[in-house]
Write a structure and sequence with these properties.
Blueprint: E1 2-3, H1 5-11, H2 26-36, H3 41-46, E2 48-51, E3 54-56, E4 68-71
Parallel strand pairs: 1-4
Antiparallel strand pairs: 2-3, 2-4
């Protein structure tokens, strides 16, 4: 899972490997990632998850070949 901005800062890495069962969803990924890196839990609830460069809903079923990224909310003027 690729991490950007605040997610990368909290995890201390630009990517985190996550093992998921077959037919796992984006929601399952969020839970697994929060368990692996507890400091990300609160931010994950507010972040978008992109699968293959498109924002995906929590119900989206992941495939082994998918490229996944956490996109934290941004602010600014």
């Amino acid at each position: 899972v690729h991490l950007f901005a605040a997610a990368r800062d909290l995890a201390g890495a630009a990517a985190v490997p996550v093992e998921l069962p077959p037919s796992a969803t984006v929601a399952g990924l969020r839970a697994a990632l929060a368990a692996r890196v507890p400091s990300l839990a609160a931010l994950l609830a507010r972040s978008a998850v992109a699968v293959n460069h498109a924002v995906a809903a929590d119900a989206h079923v992941l495939r082994e070949s998918d490229e996944v990224a956490v996109l934290p909310p941004v602010s600014g003027g």
